[in-house]
TrEMBL record:
GO cellular component: cytoplasm
Name used for this protein in its record: RNA methyltransferase, TrmH family
Domain of life: Bacteria
Species annotation: Companilactobacillus crustorum JCM 15951
CDD domains: SpoU-like_rRNA-MTase (cd18095)
Taxonomy of the source species: Bacteria, Bacillati, Bacillota, Bacilli, Lactobacillales
Domain RNA 2-O ribose methyltransferase substrate binding, chain residue ranges per copy: 34-103
Keyword annotations: Methyltransferase, Transferase
GO biological process: methylation; RNA processing
Amino acid sequence: MDHMKYIESKKNDEIKQLKKLSATKNIRKTGTYMIEGFHLVREADQYEQEFVKLFVTEKYEEDRLVKKYREIATVVSEDVANELSETKTPQGIFAVIKVQAGDDVNELSGKWVMLDDVQDPGNVGTIVRTADAAGYDGVITSLDTADFYQPKVQRSMQGSQFHLPIYRMDINRAINLAKKSQLKIYGSEVNAQAKPYTELDKIDDFALIMGNEAHGITQDVLNETDENIYIPILGKAESLNVAVAAGVLMYGLQSL
């Protein structure tokens, strides 16, 4: 069996191009993005993502997964792996895969989470992962929400990005889509008209909107919600982190 291509220097042109895939503009331009770590690469394979390239250190050379993609695999040195990695302890396996459908959806059904300008990559990834765990049907992010193809978001999602659809579009379009699909729209917001989520009646089809960490949901979006809901604070904290609040609401609305 032929040996795989080997790259030793982190100054290699292909490695330089690969490094650029952490930027949103280059992800959108090339239609590809990079994932890192054996768990994510294995999940991408299991859920039939389209692999473009695979980069591994020598310890993975005889791995079953690497053998499957041998035609597009390249062995890299530890120096190169350290250069490519976004983590302190790189595992030495990276895959370049095709981006999924960005906003190609005309109808929604079931339970959805919408993110209105959530900025922190860790929050976005955690919300997607929790939506997956709570049995939601998908996530829609606004155009100003942290891009779910960013490496930090990818790591936080831990493979959930391959389990449920994630769309990125103008938030007003998302709301119109939900209304057209006859989903009830809940906004996570504390105001005079809002009610505790525990007082809601159980329904099967809805969209839950979570807002920006500092400013919450924009007023234009609040004007379009059917009902605004909040989590009662039992202690002295003023508020909850948006990812924590999303988790409480997602599970709470499922268990009414």
